Amino acid sequence: MRSRTSADVLVIGGGIIGLVTAWRAAQRGLRTALADPEPGGGAAQVAAGMLAAVTELHYGEETLLGLNLASARRYPEFVAELQEASGQDTGYRSCGTLAVALDTDDRAHLRELHALQRRSGLESEWLTGRECRRLEPMLAPGVRGGLRVDGDHQIDPRRLAKALVVACERAGVTFHRSWAQRLSVVRDRVTGAVLREGGPAGAEGSGADHEVAAGRVVLAAGSLSGRLDGVPEEVVPPVRPVKGQVLRLTVPRPYAPFLSRTVRAVVRGSQVYLVPRENGELVVGATTEELGWDTTVTAGGVYELLRDAHELVPGITELPLTETRAGLRPGSPDNAPLLGPTELPGLLLATGHYRNGVLLTPVTGDVMAQALVTGELPEEARAFTPRRFSPVRQELSV
Q1: Of 16, 207, 354, 386, whose CB neighbour count within 10 A is largest?
Q2: Cα dihedral 351, 352, 358, 364 sign
Q3: What's the confidence (pLDDT) of residue 257?
Q4: Is 135 helix (H, G, I), strand (E, B) or coil?
């Protein structure tokens, strides 16, 4: 026999994006439920937590830059509010980022990035190799130059997720620790979803069904967002999994000043970054692999990260390797998120954040809360409507 409960809003997915959406919705007075077998899990358990709106700037992503900057500006106030609401520390650090070049080609690329940053009105300072090493003495002697960006900060995504779970609980969010099996649609309108213990959407599993009736459903399941049964084909979010392998090392006690800020570089065409935590942890990442749903940690991935990190900071090979992980980023066709109402009444999306999920957490929560209350997106988010990928709109643009 199927059990049944109701809510104003059902959020499907308990990663940081789903959690912040549920928290903000509950704060707006909406009866909010969230479905996920392990709230606080997902990509946040693998992410490094760089809040790098400036150093993450890529050509062709100037529109996304505006949203990234808006979210970065909200982070200090957001963290203060979240830590007060949850009583949990998030590991937020305003330590800045140093992006460096190891050879002539990398230096030229970094110079081009600096020019793009300046044209975009961003603050970054060009440093010589000697000035880079003065800031970070552990850098390799061959560093040719770099960009100092004091406005790019960091947070611990695992602590962030834990704090959001507690904040949701205290705000009255109802947690259903179950998989969402199927979206419920009646007369071309969403009416909730059917949940089941035992397995994700599309998988066989035992357990009793539970139906959550809700006038609005937010699909925030990361790379799994496109796999929920019952979603009409024309509104299935075009997200794909992009694998990333990450390493964690430990700086032995007492924590020597190994690195004082996030350091990143392009080595042989691959991005590598080192993110130091106050507790002595050092996060090294990350690979970018289009391998479907594979989350295997490979010897090749670990080797490449350690090799590139060693070229950047030779002393890293003396540190204990404490963890290797692989996760899946939710990529979209234009590497930007899908936020807000879809063409199906009652269904909203908060997914496709790709490499910016942690950075975009504050603004996503605010945007989705407004969309849930008013049915409209704020101006800053209108370029990221899911409707930009709808078949009807694409046919009109041809």
Answers
A1: 16
A2: negative
A3: 73
A4: helix
pLDDT of residue 266: 82
Q: How far apart are CA 154 and CA 52, in angstroms?
A: 8
Q: What per-residue confidence (pLDDT) applies to 392? A: 55
Give the chain's length. 398
Q: Given the structure tokens 């830590």, which residue do they identify? A: 83
Alpha carbons 395 and 398: distance in angstroms, whole number? 5
HSE toward the beta carbon, residue 283, CA cutoff 13 A? 25
Q: Which of 44, 344, 333, 373 is nearest to 219 (CA)?
A: 344
Residue 35 contacts residue 29 (beta carbons within 8 Å) = no
Distance (Å, whole) CA 166 – CA 23: 10
SS3 per residue for 353-368: CHHHCCCCHHHHHHHH
- Contact status, residue 148 vs residue 264, Cβ threshold 8 Å: no
Residue 52 near residue 97 (C-beta atoms within 8 A):
yes
Q: Per-block average pLDDT, block size 10, for the chain (398 residues)?
A: 87 98 98 97 92 88 92 97 98 95 90 92 95 96 94 96 98 96 96 80 60 97 96 96 96 81 87 92 94 96 96 95 97 96 97 96 98 96 95 47
8 Å CB contact between 365 and 218 = no
Question: Across the strands, what pairs with 314?
Answer: none
Contacts with 81 (C-beta within 8 Å, 6 or more apart), sequence order = none
- The first and second tokens of residue 236, run together, are 């299935």
Q: Which of 70, 5, 73 lies closest to 35, judged by CA?
A: 5
d(C-alpha 360, C-alpha 365), whole Å:
9
- For the four alpha carbons of 13, 14, 17 and 18, in that order, the dihedral sign comes to positive
Check: CATH 3.40.50.10860 for 3-45+159-238+333-397?
no
How do the domains of the chain map onto residue ranges? 3-45+159-238+333-397, 97-150+241-331
Query: String of b and e for 359-371 (b: at least 16 CB within 10 Å)?
Result: bbbbbbbbbbbbb
Q: Does residue 259 contact residue 232 with C-beta atoms inside 8 Å?
A: no
Helix/strand/coil percentages in the chain, nearest 5: 35, 30, 35
Cα–Cα nearest to 164, from 220, 238, 225: 220
Q: Which fold has domain 97-150+241-331?
A: D-Amino Acid Oxidase; Chain A, domain 2 (3.30.9)
